């Protein structure tokens, strides 16, 4: 099967996928790649606690709960 | 005598490097486009293009012009590197899920789900490579079978299946 045999409607859709090629050097050392890895997108670590931008209550509550837990834990060892 | 050998070796090395530079200029864009359309991750694709030429430089001696052409050889290297990198990433994702952002598909809006980018991303891996190489890179089925290291019959069946699946995805009939 060649390109001509691909239905026109799919060809039109496939043509919409343009890719801009950025400037890239032939080689880059691991040290040069490290910042890309460090600054790459990562998952929000607070997502699991349900903390988003405007949930200040939870943002205050979780550290407070942690501090209280840390404070009262020695009581169980007396 | 020794200096003659050194000079010959230097000339040969210079010629090889020049050739690789030329190849880089010619093939960096097609290879980048192929890997980008496959995995849609810009940073990974930049690394893959560079790694392809580094690996080519290393294994250039194994390239046999009679068996395949240079484009097929470079695409095969890029494809193998990409598959290995994606497998490694998938393993890491299972071990350290908190380091990875949610997959692109989950974040897509209703309208975006019917774009060609999303449809290609939803194709099974094996079918995706076949349709990308056929349509965007105008490669023959023989070349594709060489790149993916599968029989020509399998290329045909995967292409057929990918077109059906793509049509269904674009129409929204999953």
From TrEMBL, chain A:
Domain of life: Bacteria
Keyword check for Transmembrane: yes
Transmembrane portions of the chain: 59-77
Keywords, alphabetical: Membrane, Transmembrane, Transmembrane helix
Protein name per UniProt: Uncharacterized protein
Source organism per UniProt: Salinibacillus aidingensis
Lineage: Bacteria, Bacillati, Bacillota, Bacilli, Bacillales
From TrEMBL, chain B:
One protein family per Pfam: Sigma70_r2
SUPFAM superfamilies, per database record: Sigma2 domain of RNA polymerase sigma factors (SSF88946), Sigma3 and sigma4 domains of RNA polymerase sigma factors (SSF88659)
Residues spanning the signal sequence: none
RNA polymerase sigma factor 70 region 4 type domain boundaries: 116-166
InterPro entries for the chain: RNA_pol_sigma-70-like, RNA_pol_sigma-70_dom, RNA_pol_sigma70_r2, RNA_pol_sigma70_r4_t2, RNA_pol_sigma_r2, RNA_pol_sigma_r3/r4-like, WH-like_DNA-bd_sf
Keywords: DNA-binding, Sigma factor, Transcription, Transcription regulation
UniProt superkingdom: Bacteria
Transcription keyword on record: yes
Domain RNA polymerase sigma-70 region residues, every copy: 26-91
Homology family: Belongs to the sigma-70 factor family. ECF subfamily.
Protein name (Swiss-Prot/TrEMBL): RNA polymerase sigma factor
């Amino acid at each position: 099967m060649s390109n001509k045999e691909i239905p026109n409607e799919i060809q039109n859709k496939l043509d919409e996928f343009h890719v801009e090629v950025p400037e890239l050097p032939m080689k880059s050392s691991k040290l040069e790649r490290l910042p890309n890895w460090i600054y790459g997108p990562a998952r929000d670590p607070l997502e699991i606690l349900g903390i988003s931008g405007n949930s200040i209550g939870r943002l205050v509550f979780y550290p407070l709960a942690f501090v209280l837990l840390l404070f009262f834990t020695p009581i169980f060892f007396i | 005598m020794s200096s003659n050998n050194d000079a010959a070796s230097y000339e040969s090395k210079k010629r090889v490097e020049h050739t690789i530079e030329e190849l880089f200029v010619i093939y960096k864009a097609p290879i980048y486009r192929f890997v980008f359309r496959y995995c849609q991750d810009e940073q990974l694709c930049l690394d893959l293009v560079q790694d392809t030429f580094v690996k080519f430089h290393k294994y250039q001696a194994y390239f046999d012009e009679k068996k395949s052409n240079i484009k097929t050889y470079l695409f095969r290297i890029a494809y193998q590197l990409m598959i290995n990198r994606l497998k490694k990433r998938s393993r890491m994702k299972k071990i350290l899920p908190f380091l990875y952002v949610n997959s692109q598909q989950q974040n897509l809006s209703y309208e975006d789900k019917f774009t060609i980018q999303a449809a290609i991303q939803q194709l099974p891996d094996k079918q995706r490579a076949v349709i990308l190489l056929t349509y965007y890179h105008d490669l023959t089925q023989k070349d594709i079978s060489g790149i993916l290291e599968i029989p020509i019959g399998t290329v045909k069946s995967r292409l057929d299946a990918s077109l059906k699946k793509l049509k269904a995805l674009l129409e929204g009939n999953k």
